[in-house]
Amino acid sequence: MPLWQIFHPVDAFSPEDKAALAAQITDVYAAVMPRFYVGIVFHPMDPAQFFVGGKPADRFVRIVMEHIARSFPSVEASRRFIDRINAILKPYVADRGLDWELHVDETPFDYWSINGHYPPRAGTPDEIRWRTENRASPRTHD
Length: 142
Description:
Elements: E1 3-9, H1 15-30, E2 39-45, E3 51-52, E4 55-56, E5 60-67, H2 75-89, E6 99-106, H3 125-133
Parallel strand pairs: 1-2, 5-6
Antiparallel strand pairs: 1-5, 3-4
């Protein structure tokens, strides 16, 4: 599951911006996994609570991505993904004069469950069913 946490200035994104950004991010992942795997949390931050370099961060966005469902097979694959994400973010951050930073943590696949079910491996019949139904359910294959 990808879980995104986006720490941002209070006025950085409108509700419509958040919905559009969440949809675009989800679309990236939906090409290879169930849409319901993708979680995105926006954290509006008062600059008095968010510091970068020891100074209030009033025009800074920090994005933390946790990946469990998939891991990058190579540095090149991670760069392609990050470049794609930066292109999606550009109208929301760079074009608005915001600075940003992002990183991806990868958690081992076996340390994860959804609604008490262990998710199926990529490309298996169970994962195909989960993608089609857009929900977790008991596995029928190993």
